[in-house]
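Predict the 3D structure for this chain.
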Amino acid sequence: MSSERTAMTSVDRSWLRMDTPENPMMISAVLMFEQPIPIKRLKRTLEERFLRFRRFRQRVVEKGDKCYWEDDPNFDLDNHLHRIALPGQASKKELQELASDFNSTALDFRRPLWQIHYIDNFNGGCALLIRIHHCIADGISLVRVLLSLTDRTPEPKLERIAKKVAIPKPQGNAATRFLHRLVDSSQAGWQQAQLFLDSVRQEPNYPLKLARTAGGIAMDLAKLGLAPFEPKTSLKSQLVGRKKVAWAEPLALDDVKHCARTLGGTVNDVLLCAATGALSRHFTEHKQTIPDCGIRVAVPFNLRPLDQPIESLGNQFGLVLVCLPVEVHDPLMCFRQVQENMNRLKQSYQAQVTYSLLDLFGRGPDILERRALDLLSNKASAVLTNVPGPRHPVYLAGSKLVQPMFWVPQSGNIGIGMSIFSYADTVQFGITVDKGIQADPQAVMNYFRDSFQHLYDAAMSHAHGLHIAQAS
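Done. Predicted structure below.
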């Protein structure tokens, strides 16, 4: 193997092989800025901060049934950064249509798998439309990478551009490297044995706890495999590969937190309840039968410590299936049901199980992964992400970021992706919908805001009633 080539991990390989014409495996973002960004300064920022991750200079090569990362010998930033302008008044509608177009288009596999389009003259400022393949890293990592390009003030102190990040290369021949790996594995095994014995000494019932954990993992694996398929609704239609993108006007994060505190839940519970109400309203508006057992959404669950620096990319997350009680129309009852479902999942090992399955599928033949993917994607109607962003405004190359939106790809026959992202004391909500699904993405965005308002009003009314009862 070339010294400039490294093997792709089995989990990253799983995401690479999920790529289909109907669902390109791209994580995409639309970032809207208050002022135009000077192109030269943007390039300098990308060269200094983005390209310090070697992966963004590498392309994917396949040799037989193996996949590798290889330095692109003809890498040029201009192949990945493009400048374009919107037609007409360059409004939100035109930007959504452009994002829809690019989200329906695959990346060029001859080059490193990412692109940035600089959008001139949007709302007096500019916008960036970013696409990065999922095999490079998971959504949480990539959000952190993109935020690392920003500063808390308009005038950062840029350091000298580093053309290439030095990465230690393996020394010696293949036999030497094999012996090093063998020694490392032996040392890791001995350390694990020592930790186990220490745990037994400190806690005699530790083996029993370990057995219970193994039993819990086995149980969650069985539950995942035996979970029934999603009910047939308009959200599970034949995909055509053409995406429609929309986003809502942001909510005030303080309002969401106030609602969560009043109901004794979390911000995540409130937002999932609002998403549930939005999908329920979709069924009602289209005069469709609402499933009496709810619908499930696949939610990525981060397995990487959030305080761990992003020094290496890759995918470190699992998926959990969350049931949204769309059949429950009372907002407070809906909230309690969502809260109960989330509390149950927090005690499970479902995220670890799905991560292990991705690792297993990435090591096996392509047909095994395809069949497993079809099986799992039949058990969810949508993908929903909820990623926390910075509490304060940030600046990219001197321009203030006004509104950010991020989407992760869908897989298999799932055609809906919903995204929740908190930023600068606001909550952003966006959606991408395959054109084969009869759903108006902008209408669903409006339903989301209405659903949150109904929950907020019900929470305040309930709290007021309790206050009066206690006073009397």
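Residues 159-171, 173-193, 206-226 have pLDDT under 50 and may be disordered.
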